[in-house]
Amino acid sequence: MNPTTTPPPVGTPPQAGGESPTGTAAGGRFALLPARLIRQGRPAWWAELLLTAIGYALYTVSRNAVPDHRAAALHRAQELLDLERHLHLSFELSLNHAANHVTWLIVGMNYYYATLHFVMVIGTLLWLHLRRPDHYRAARTALYTATAGALVGFYAFALAPPRFLTGDGFIDTVVVHHTWGSWASGPVADASNQYAAMPSVHIAWSTWCAVVLYRLAKPRAVRVLAALYPVATCVVILSTANHFEADAVAGLLTIAAGFAVQRLLTGRPAFGARPGAAREGNSPAASADRPRGTE
Fold first, then answer.
1. DSSP character string of the chain
2. Which of 50, 112, 226, 236 has an alpha carbon within 20 to 30 A of 206's alpha carbon?
């Protein structure tokens, strides 16, 4: 008589390292990707370069479409401003004029807008790659998904920034104060898409950095600064008249969608418990609060 193997009870999750069926992540959670494609740890450097090249190619497509979208982008900007004013939600103009009166402040904001989002995103990616490799793929997937979604928005819904609406009183702070402003006005404007206001990538990226650092960094000061970073970025993008309030809201929704897609793909959130939570749960005080089993 041949030996038989007793099947595991219904609902038993697959063993670690075992093969899960397509559409099911380890632990029985639903995932769009099969388990064999869900990996952790540092990816190959050439794969990251390839993803970056693809992203730049998509951006180039949206940038080359600008001449065809210019009239529509300006028309949409005027309509959006009129809608915000009708709803009594528009304060971009007041903030733009208030910041413009303080030269050192607005010049600092111009450089903040031009550079800091690149510095922070690259720095956070490198930190993840070197110090938190197990979280790198999930966080990167959320970021790249959100960025890809933003590029689609730039191409399909070109929108001029408020600084182009000079007839409504907006001030192009880079031009007025003769400061260099990448992806804004001035000599580098030809290298950027001037009608890519919706959604705000500055808000999407700064929020991504904030979520990553707040969840994974240990020093409290770093986590507090991370939480304030998107708030400061929002003030900057409105003060420099590079975005409407609606663009900032769209940026938040874009990065939220990026994390949602990452969870759908893998069947698990990008981050588990914050570092230190497990240790706190295993502390003597926490152990004393747990109910004791029957002796």
1. -----PPPPTTPPPPTTSPPPTTB-TTS-B-SS-GGG---SPPPHHHHHHHHHHHHHHHHHHHHTHHHHHHHHHHHHHHHHHHHHHTT---HHHHHHHHHTSHHHHHHHHHIIIIIHHHHHHHHHHHHHHH-HHHHHHHHHHHHHHHHHHHHHHHHS-B--GGG-GGGT---HHHHTT---TTSSSTTGGGS-TTB-SS-HHHHHHHHHHHHHHHH---HHHHHHHHHHHHHHHHHHHHTTS--HHHHHHHHHHHHHHHHHHHHHHSS-S--SPTTHHHHHTSHHHHHHSPPPP-
2. 50
